[in-house]
């Protein structure tokens, strides 16, 4: 990796949340309209995420024709969206909701339209509200990654963070009802 992404040395202790998805279990969508993993996002990536051992998440994504960037290959922005969402599941293994504050992707090989991308993401550490994660994407052999991602997520109070924006969602009524429950 050729960037300034640095995980601090003085990390906090972390534990897997008792209510986190079990190993091998599909992780629930955080929002059915999410462009990354939402089943109700017609044009979205439709990532399928699974909880792994310890602090790992795996995911698969079919590289559909609508994701083309260069001729016959995936668009780089689509791939970075996928990394954002896959690594964005890591905080849910330790508990808090969190949003991306930093995301970077190293593109190592072209990724063909029609292929199935597989992802493995893992926690690198937590320091206060910051959660550091790393992910790789591969086409079947995890020892031959086609891209690598790094991200920092910051924990949020979900109700507070989204309060002014719920009305923009197609599921505004549902979210308003859910967030007004004690
Ligand atoms: C319905 C269920 C939904 C559940 C939601 C699940 C969604 C997951 C999947 C999708 C993920 C996304 O795409 S999220 C969408 C894209 N992201 C966003 O929209 C986030 C926009 N950013 C923000 O709203 C804000 O920056 C916040 C709220 C995240 C943080 O602001 P804040 O609360 O004022 O906190 P602040 O003090 O600035 O930062 C806290 C700590 O993080 C550090 N920090 C802040 N920014 C950075 C940065 N770019 N790089 C490094 N470190 C940073 C600070 O130095 C500090 O460290 P220290 O002092 O402790 O050392």
TrEMBL record:
Its main location: membrane. It comes from Gordonia aquimaris. This is Acyl-coenzyme A thioesterase THEM4. It catalyses: octanoyl-CoA + H2O = octanoate + CoA + H(+); hexadecanoyl-CoA + H2O = hexadecanoate + CoA + H(+); decanoyl-CoA + H2O = decanoate + CoA + H(+); dodecanoyl-CoA + H2O = dodecanoate + CoA + H(+). Its EC number is 3.1.2.2. Belongs to the THEM4/THEM5 thioesterase family. It is a peripheral membrane protein. Residues 72-143 form the Thioesterase domain. Keywords: Apoptosis, Cell membrane, Cell projection, Cytoplasm, Fatty acid metabolism, Hydrolase, Lipid metabolism, Membrane, Transit peptide. One of its GO terms (molecular function) is hydrolase activity. It is an enzyme of class 3 (hydrolase). GO terms for cellular component: cytoplasm; membrane. It comes from the Bacteria. CDD domains: PaaI_thioesterase. It is found in: Cell projection, Ruffle membrane; Cytoplasm; Membrane. GO terms for biological process: fatty acid metabolic process.
């Amino acid at each position: 990796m050729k960037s300034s992404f640095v995980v601090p040395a003085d990390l906090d202790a972390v534990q897997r949340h008792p209510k986190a998805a079990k190993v091998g279990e599909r992780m629930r969508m955080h929002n059915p309209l999410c462009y990354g993993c939402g089943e109700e996002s017609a044009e979205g990536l439709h990532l399928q995420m699974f909880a792994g051992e310890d602090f790992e998440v795996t995911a698969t994504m079919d590289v559909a024709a609508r994701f083309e960037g260069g001729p016959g290959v995936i668009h780089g922005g689509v791939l970075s969206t996928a990394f954002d969402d896959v690594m964005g599941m890591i905080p849910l293994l330790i508990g808090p909701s969190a949003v991306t504050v930093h995301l970077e992707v190293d593109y190592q090989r072209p990724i063909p339209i029609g292929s199935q991308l597989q992802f493995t993401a893992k926690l690198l550490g937590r320091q206060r509200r910051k959660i550091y994660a790393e992910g790789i994407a591969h086409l079947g052999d995890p020892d031959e990654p086609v891209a690598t991602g790094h991200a920092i997520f910051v924990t949020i109070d979900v109700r507070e963070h989204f309060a002014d924006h719920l009305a923009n969602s197609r599921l505004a009524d549902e979210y308003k009802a859910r967030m007004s429950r004690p």
